[in-house]
Amino acid sequence: MKTTLVFSHMEESALARGAFLEKSGKIAKHLKRFKDDQAALHGALDKNPHKEEFQASLTLYLPTTTLHVRESGPEYGAAFNKAFLALARQLKEHKDKLTREKRRVARHSPKP
Q1: DSSP state at residue 34
Q2: pLDDT confidence of 108, banded at 50, 70, 90?
Q3: Which residues contact 38 (CB under 8 A, 6 or more apart)?
Q4: 95 Cβ partners below 8 Å, 6+ apart?
Q5: Is residue 82 classed exposed, middle or buried when 0-12, 13-18 and 19+ CB atoms within 10 A define those classes?
Q6: How far, in Å, CA of 95 to CA of 10, rounded?
Q7: C-alpha span between 58 and 16 (Å, rounded)
Q8: Pick from 84, 90, 82: which is nearest to 64 by CA?
């Protein structure tokens, strides 16, 4: 899986990049169905100077769909945790949908 992380309104942080790569590794475990070059994860971490909060935005590009989440938190770690949990939830729902559709097609196809 290809990964990119962009920082906005803040300096690039090795700790934030490490947290992002650690969490993206956990998401990659759920993508065994797809080839490595078919999945791409784009992350953006933005610091809002007026509210002193961080916003994490994640977009997962798959051959069958694009999943997007945006979460905020008082620290970048909390924002990433919320965003990756929401992305994992969406990914699970999408995989369930693909499985249901595969079963439906198999059930309605003519038997030889």
Answers
A1: S
A2: confident
A3: 62, 63
A4: 30, 33
A5: middle
A6: 35
A7: 14
A8: 90
Q: What is the mean pLDDT of the chain?
A: 89
CATH code reported for the domain at 2-108: 3.30.160.100
Instruction: Sheet containing 66-73: give its strands across.
Output: 2-8, 40-48, 53-61, 66-73
Helix, strand, or coil (residue 45)? strand
SS3 62: coil
**Which residues, listed in sequence order, are joined to residue 61 by a DSSP beta bridge?**
40, 66
Predicted pLDDT at 72:
94
- Segment (H or E) for 42: strand 40-48
pLDDT tens readout for residues 39-88: 999 999 999 888 889 999 999 999 989 999 999 999 989 999 999 999 99
Q: What percent of the chain has pLDDT over 70?
A: 97
Single-letter amino acid code for the residue at 16: A
